[in-house]
């Protein structure tokens, strides 16, 4: 994939996500869940709480693809329940979604960045960074993980790679933890959850610690 093809890939994905997310009326819909099937706040928590469960110490947390900021808002609440102090940051390549996130978290508006994680220059490193591999083409995913560890995660920090499974992924032959292990990354932990009323809908979060 040359530079022009990659630019078009990112632009097509930005337009697709904006149309899908901004058509939602609930905060979790504007953050990527329940766009086409019934969902509620409980389902959102089941499918996203594993991300917060992977945060075991206080510190800075960057959510890549933060959309409207609802996940950051929830992570703050869920970690506070365990006595952790998380300083939230967000990154998204959609100016419209970044605006929503800054409105949702006005006290952290200057922590919400506009940019593409593939080529964004971070002003700092973070104790924990959350992402999925869907943000880059398949043939760049391994390099993407290496880039995030090198440029975004502080030494001793953690990279969280989330995978959201559904009916369109049920036949996938390799889960996120298996893929990362195949690429040579040592996993610190894997957290997971599923909807009891729809077990195919699952979340897996693999954690890689930067040495």
Question: Can you walk through the features of this model?
Answer:
With 211 residues, the protein is α/β, with parallel strands linked by helices. It has one domain: Vaccinia Virus protein VP39 (Rossmann fold, 3-Layer(aba) Sandwich). 34% of the residues lie in helices and 27% in strands. It has a seven-stranded mixed beta sheet, with helices on both faces. Helix 5 links the parallel strand 4 (126-132) and strand 5 (153-165). The longest helix is centred in the N-terminal third of the chain and has 20 residues, at 3-22. The protein is globular. 35% of the residues are buried.
Task: Show the helix and strand layout.
Elements: H1 3-22, H2 41-53, E1 59-64, H3 70-80, E2 86-92, H4 95-104, E3 112-114, E4 126-132, H5 141-151, E5 153-165, H6 176-182, E6 187-195, E7 198-209
Helix pairs in contact: 2-3
* Termini separation: 31 Å
What is the helix tally?
Answer: 6
Number of beta strands: 7
CATH topology name: Rossmann fold
Taken in chain order, the helices and strands follow as: HHEHEHEEHEHEE
- Total domain count: 1
Which residues form runs of ≥5 with pLDDT under 50?
none
Rg computed from alpha carbons, rounded to a whole number of angstroms: 16 Å
Mind telling me the CATH class?
A: Alpha Beta
* CATH architecture term: 3-Layer(aba) Sandwich
User: What do we call the CATH homologous superfamily?
Assistant: Vaccinia Virus protein VP39
The major sheet is characterized as:
7 strands, mixed
Q: Which structural class best describes the helix and strand composition?
A: alpha/beta
Percent of residues in helices: 25-40%
Shape: globular
The average pLDDT score comes to 91
Q: Order of strands in the sheet with the most strands?
A: 3-2-1-4-5-7-6
